[in-house]
Amino acid sequence: MRHGVAQAINAGDLMLMLPFLAVDHFEDLDDGVRWRLARALARHSASTVRGQSEELALLTSGQLSRARYRRAVEGKTGSLFALPVEGAALLAGRSAEDAQALGERFTALGVLFQLQDDVVDLYGDKGRGHRGSDLEEGKVSALVLAHLERVPEDSEWLLALLEAPRDVTGVEAVEEAIQRFRESGALADVLDEIRSIGASIAEDKLLQEEPALAAVANQVCRLALHPIAHLLS
Predict the structure, then answer these.
(1) Using CB atoms within 10 A of its CB, is residue 76 exposed (0-12), middle (13-18) or buried (19+)?
(2) Total of domains in the chain
(3) Which residues of the chain fall short of a pLDDT of 50?
(4) What CATH number does residue 40 fall under?
(5) Full domain range(s) for residue 177
């Protein structure tokens, strides 16, 4: 780290504040809309941090569950998808309630994106040079949780793999996990969940009332799923 931990914290604090200054720089914007934008920004920023914190605590908490994973992902990833849509709706003159409802549809897109990212790490190419980076980093993925639901007796093996130092986790251990997740049905379960979310987005009645926004959602969905299209076909 070039400038040290203290300066990294300062940089993070500054980046949290800059978006609020950007909102203040909008010209000819009603103060009420400006306030609603700032409120949405604060809400989603807090949700993102909570989600990231919950994800980091999944392994150490000893409470591995898909419900906790989903809550973490909705926060850390879903909020990043929802905020731009909610903000655009507010700028377009929609009420705070309607704008939030539209944004929430894109929270599901964030979850879909995170699920495919978990799958790509083991069954695709993230561009990191090799597979299994998430396992090496000790991340609790959707595949990990789906496998533990199906094969709870693998808990000791899988937790030991996740808790091992990165430089200790070898290619053979990653390949074993890839095989076990496929054979147990964990991969199929996560792919089914991805399909289900994609279908719910395509069939969402509120989005259907907003054709332009529905087109954006469907295009984002297609782009997100492209890296795992070979698994979904």
Answers:
(1) buried
(2) 1
(3) none
(4) 1.10.600.10
(5) 4-232
